Amino acid sequence: FLGVMPAYSAADDALTTKLVTFYEHKKDSSVPSHQATVLLLDPRNGSLKAVLDGSVITAKRTAAVSAIATKLLMPAFAEVLCILGAGVQAYSHYDIFTELFTFKEVRIWNRTKEKAVKFANSVNGPVQVCSSAQEAVSGADVIITVTMATTPILFGDWVKPGAHINAVGASRPDWRELDDELMKNSVLFVDSREAALTESGDVILSGAEIFAELGEVVKGMKPALPEKTTVFKSLGMAVEDTVAAKFVYDSWSAGN
């Protein structure tokens, strides 16, 4: 797939488009499944101001949005973090989640255990490698799914009541990470209603009702409900790339 994600932020006076390629690798590959480039344009005349590494921006902005959702939606006493998947997004999520939150235990599971072991050996803090997704999820307070799964790998009867789930993978209308039970028995938050109803297999195929967009919670228009079991379905929005690219460019410009 080739995705083109243009956006303009009036608040930041920033104009960008991101070009992202997505290849589903049937075998483990040294080339990432997602590769991206962000073009920053001058909103006054359309001139190209900068070409930025969109893969880094995508990894960091996606994890940052998950962290915002988690800050608002996770239970009051969250001690166990579980990550399902061991790719680029697992690393970026681990970095920001361990920086912002204090978990007593971090667990990881990946379809190929070697990648999970490599992850645990690469990051700064202690990580427990689990032999099954169920083992990783059992009793976890915050769960992050960042997999290439096309059928559910996380099931509702495994999930601790009141847990918060950031569902980041399964970005196609026929792909799933979460089963119907979890989708229907959780309070569902999304980054974009419009996107979720056309792009997310977890939302479309389960028929789960969307409670709120994350932005509505941030702005105080909808309650967060951290005492409930919550799911944040993240698909990514072009404006996130725009704000991040402008931030990077402004920082770089100030240094020059």
Automatic annotation (TrEMBL):
Its EC number is 1.5.1.1, 1.5.1.25. It is an enzyme of class 1 (oxidoreductase). Coiled coil: none annotated. One of its GO terms (molecular function) is pyrroline-2-carboxylate reductase activity. GO terms for cellular component: cytoplasm. It holds the Pfam family OCD_Mu_crystall. It catalyses: L-proline + NAD(+) = 1-pyrroline-2-carboxylate + NADH + H(+); (S)-cystathionine ketimine + NADH + 2 H(+) = (3R,5S)-2,3,5,6,7-pentahydro-1,4-thiazepine-3,5-dicarboxylate + NAD(+); (R)-lanthionine ketimine + NADPH + 2 H(+) = (3R,5R)-1,4-thiomorpholine-3,5-dicarboxylate + NADP(+); (3R)-1,4-thiomorpholine-3-carboxylate + NAD(+) = 3,4-dehydrothiomorpholine-3-carboxylate + NADH + 2 H(+). InterPro entries: NAD(P)-bd_dom_sf (IPR036291), ODC_Mu_crystall (IPR003462), ODC_N (IPR023401). GO terms for biological process: thyroid hormone metabolic process. Gene3D superfamilies: NAD(P)-binding Rossmann-like Domain (3.40.50.720), ornithine cyclodeaminase, domain 1 (3.30.1780.10). Belongs to the ornithine cyclodeaminase/mu-crystallin family. Homodimer. Binds the thyroid hormone triiodothyronine (T3); T3 binding inhibits enzymatic activity. This is Ketimine reductase mu-crystallin.
